[in-house]
Amino acid sequence: MNHRKAINHLRRADPVMARVIATVGPCRFGPITDHSHFHHLARAIVYQQLSGKAAATIHGRFVALFPTNPPHPRDVAAAKDAPLRAAGLSRQKAAYIRDLATKVHEGSLPLDRIASLPDDEVIAALTRVKGIGKWSAQMFLMFRLGRPDVLPDLDLGIQKAVKLAYGLRSMPKPKRVLKIGRSWSPYATVASWYLWRSLDT
C-alpha cells in the first residue's frame, strides 16, 4: 500500500482527516505477514474478549498442544475438548477453533486462495465460521491481507475517534460512520489506522 498516495488523498478529501493526520504523524500501518492465515485466525479467536497477557498465555498453551508451530488445521480439527479446555480455552472458543480448522482442512474455507478474493467474498467466507463475525473478518482484511479500503464501522474505537474528531454529541452509529467515511475511499484502511492512533494522542 502506498502510504503517501493514501495520505495525500485523505488530506484533500476531508479537512478533519487532514487535522488527524497532522496530529498523529507518519503512517506506520502494515499487514502482519508471519505464520499462516489459519494461525492468524485461530489466534484472533483465542484473543476475543481477553486482555493481551491472558490471551497470549492461553494461545501459547494452545500452540504447544500440537506437533507443529503453527498447528496444522487437520490436527486442530481432530483435537479433543479436554486438552483445549485445559489450555484455557472456553468450551465455546474450543468449538469455534475446531470449526475453523475443520472448514480449512475440508476446503470449505479456501485460505490457500483467499487473498485472491474480493473483500466482500472474503467476509462472506470467513463469517461462515462460528465465532468469526463481520468485525473479525474486516480485521483480517486489514491486518492480514493489507486491503486498502476497509472501514470497520462496527468498531467502538473507530466510532469513538469519529465522535471526537468530528465534534459529534453522541457516538455515531455504523451507518453514520460509513457516511462520514465515504470520501476516504479507496484508502479507508489508512484513515481507520489514523483514527485508532488519534485516541492515543
List the topology elements.
Layout (H helix, E strand, L loop, with lengths): L2 H11 L1 H10 L12 H11 L4 H13 L8 H5 L3 H6 L4 H16 L12 H8 L7 H10 L12 H10 L8 H7 L7 H11 L3
Helix pairs in contact: 1-2, 2-12, 3-7, 8-9, 10-12
What does this structure look like?
By secondary structure, the chain is mostly helical. It folds into 2 domains: 3-30 and 150-198, Endonuclease Iii, domain 2; 37-143, Endonuclease III, domain 1, CATH 1.10.340.30. The chain is 59% helix and 0% strand. The chain contains 12 helices and no strands. The protein has helices at 3-13, 15-24, 37-47, 52-64, 73-77, 81-86, 91-106, 119-126, 134-143, 156-165, 174-180, 188-198. Helix 1 packs across helix 2, helix 8 packs across helix 9 (134-143) and helix 10 (156-165) crosses helix 12. The radius of gyration is 18 Å and the shape is elongated. The model has no long low-confidence stretch (mean pLDDT 94).
Question: What descriptors fit this protein?
Answer:
Endonuclease Iii, domain 2; 201 residues; mainly alpha
Looking at the structure, the CATH topology of the largest domain is Endonuclease III, domain 1
Number of domains: 2
For the largest beta-sheet, the strand count, sense and barrel status come to: none
Low-confidence segments: none
User: Distance N terminus to C terminus?
Assistant: 24 Å
Tell me, briefly, the overall form.
Answer: elongated
**Oligomer class:** single chain
Give the H and E element order. HHHHHHHHHHHH
What is the strand tally?
Answer: 0
Strand content: under 5%
Q: How helix-rich are the residues, as a percent range? A: 55-70%
What would you give as the CATH superfamily of the largest domain? Answer: Hypothetical protein, domain 2
CATH class of the largest domain: Mainly Alpha
* Classification by helices and strands: mainly alpha
